[in-house]
Each structure stands twice: as structure tokens, then as C-alpha cells.
Write a structure and sequence with these properties.
disordered N terminus; 10 strands; 70% strand; 10-stranded antiparallel beta barrel; Porin; mainly beta; 200 residues; Beta-barrel_OMP; OMP/PagP_B-barrel; signal
């Protein structure tokens, strides 16, 4: 949590000196983010799982109230168990659509149903599972250089479901270059993100 607060504060301070005019939420972008996660007592290994990795995500507005989304996450960590190295990697694919419902010019409700795929790999063990997810929340312009998105994210894969809650800040350094800082999680784990977003 301290890492996220520090990152968000730093981004906000940097943004305070810029003068980018954008008073509507952003939906046309490609982002590259660094990820750091912490999952308590991982079911597979029986130990805390603290992987790091990256995320590539994008969004494209098609009509005034409809857009498409896609993302790819990779998280991984190496363990030393009984003198043996164990490498655990998890890939998550997400593709879907988004529907936005303006409350005002600066505030939108959104709903994003999507197909979700998990691919896990650890030495000789692999698993691939498909399911679906729904993300819903509010996309809010706080100022002409700072936007905030708050949401709930429900995922159901292979008859196992999970709900997480997240908040993401977007700092507009220029018209096309934005900074991203966010956190998503629940009582079982937390994922932090920090990265750059290129709006078009």
C-alpha cells in the first residue's frame, strides 16, 4: 500500500505543473504496466506467492457509448523448495467490450463483460482454463490532468469465481502520454500496477 500511495502522490505532483486540457474520461489508449502482487498461502505451493511481471492493455472507443478492450498479464516467481528451484508463471488474457453511461461530461459509469483465459505453468505442470469476467465502476475526471477509475471486477473461470476491487489513477503529462498507478485486490491477494499509457 505504501508503494502505491508514494507512486500516486509522485504522479499527482508531477501533473500539477502541466496544463493538458481533457475534461472527459479516456477510452482510446495502449498501456504498458509493471505489476507486483502478493497472494497469501497459494493453494498450489502452500506458501505465499509474491510474483512480479508486466501488463499490456488497450481500449478503443467505437461509438459514443461502446468500446472494445483487451489485456495480457504475466506474473511469475522463482522458489527454492528443498534445494530445488521451482518457477511459477501465470498468464492472463482478457478480451471483451465496454459500455459507458455518462452521468455528466466528466463522470461515466461503465460495464465491461469479457472472455478470460488463465494459463499456469510450473516445471512439468501446466493448466489452461477459460471463463468470463465482468468489470463495472465509475470513470471520473478529477481535474484536467488527473482522472480516477474505481471498479469491482468479477471473474468466473472453471467454476471458481472471485471478486476484487480496484482503483486506478491516470495522470495526463501531455495529450498523448499519461502515467498510471493502481491497486486491485481482496482479502486473498493484492496486485499493484505502475506504468505508462499512450492515448490516441
Amino acid at each position: 500500500m505504501k508503494k502505491l500511495l508514494f507512486s500516486t502522490s509522485a504522479l499527482a505532483l508531477l501533473a500539477s505543473g502541466t496544463a493538458v486540457a481533457d475534461d472527459t474520461p479516456v477510452y482510446d489508449y495502449v498501456s504498458v504496466n509493471y505489476l507486483s502482487a502478493n497472494y497469501d498461502d497459494d493453494d498450489f505451493l502452500g506458501v505465499d506467492y509474491e510474483p512480479t511481471g508486466f501488463q499490456i492493455e488497450g481500449s478503443k472507443l467505437i461509438t459514443e457509448n461502446f468500446y472494445i478492450i483487451g489485456s495480457y498479464d504475466r506474473l511469475g516467481e522463482d522458489y527454492n523448495i528443498g534445494g530445488q528451484r521451482v518457477d511459477v508463471d501465470v498468464d492472463t488474457w482478457r478480451a471483451g467490450v465496454g459500455f459507458l453511461f455518462p452521468l455528466s461530461r466528466t463522470s461515466h459509469l461503465f460495464v465491461e463483460p469479457a472472455w478470460v483465459r488463465f494459463e499456469g505453468e510450473s516445471d512439468n505442470f501446466t493448466t489452461e482454463e477459460d471463463g468470463y469476467g465482468v468489470k463495472a465502476g465509475i470513470n471520473q475526471v478529477i481535474s484536467n490532468t488527473f482522472h480516477v477509475k474505481g471498479y469491482a471486477n468479477y471473474v468466473d473461470v472453471d467454476d471458481a469465481d472471485d471478486t476484487t476491487f480496484g482503483v486506478e489513477g491516470r495522470v495526463l503529462f501531455t495529450e498523448n502520454l499519461h502515467g498510471i498507478a493502481g491497486i486491485e485486490g481482496n482479502g486473498d491477494g493484492t496486485v499493484f500496477k505502475l506504468g505508462a499509457s499512450f492515448a490516441f
